[in-house]
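Take a look at the protein record below and flag anything odd:
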Amino acid sequence: MKTETRPTVLLVDDEEPFLDSLSDGLSSYRKYFQILTAINGKEAVKVLKLHPINLVITDLSMPVMDGFELLAYMSRNYPTIPVVLMTAYGTPKIEEIVMNMGVFRYLELPIDVDTMADIIIDALNMRVPQQTLPESIFDISPDRKNQILRYAERADDLMEGFYDPSVTYTKKGRVGEALFCLKALLERTPYVQDKVWALYAMGQIMEQLSKYDQALTYYQEAANFCHRTYERFYWINNNIGYCLCMLGRYQEAEKYCRVALNTDKSRANAYKNLGLALEGQGRLREAVDYYITATKINAQDVRAANHLEKLLRNNPSLDNEFNVALKECKEIIREARQGQDETKHLH
């Protein structure tokens, strides 16, 4: 008996949180295609040699082997595999170059998961009947809603009945149930801090699904309730800044990142996001300083150093000026990882 094989899509990006988020978001379409990932062009080549790939979606700017190099390699060795190139730093000239190299589609980030799925289905030339598309990951049945409500009635308080289960559902990828719990909590609780926690959690769910506009709505509503002394004040402003960056609203993002920094200067996240906001405004030297600071504060989070490396690679005039600083950041990261490895072996 012949088994039907689903097409395989290879996602390539050096930012692992983004790669994981995109892969997780596309998992709701696993009935139609399967996903493999690689963190740079060199790793992508290894995957291409080991697995039959039907479509490659790759970032343009990556260390080791970038999107241009990967596209050139595939043109020589896998000319029939369509390629979608994505970048957060696109220009009309870059678009012209890559389209002349034969890419199927050129995308400027950010992009939501559903749009990416449509592009994949189009690139694979799949004929997916509308009625058989995956059910919305946000939908749950009336029976399931009643089960959740009955459980909540037996709980000691609303946070135990709705918030705690939402955390479990989120970890399991059961987004519809998580959001239903959080909305139920929001409707029922008289306590402002409970509302803040619910709205913040809803924003996190949407952010993880790359639905930045919806995440922003929830975070901003949380900010309306959240007093500066509340535990979530820093994170709400930090996350608003990040979502605004992902939506290309860099000047607004800067304001929220600075509010977060004024609240707590010991965390790396707002420094990194402020770097994104400044880079988006073309204030590159300022962005470099904040990326460096973020790396020094938390060397185990390599995102700021990755942004720094991309910025310098895309701006050769700054590369000579800050190349030593980039090397120092990489050394800090290496030492942090080495210390982490040594800790793992302690008894």
Residues 130-135, 341-347 have pLDDT under 50 and may be disordered. Residues 183 and 245 are 26 Å apart (CA to CA).
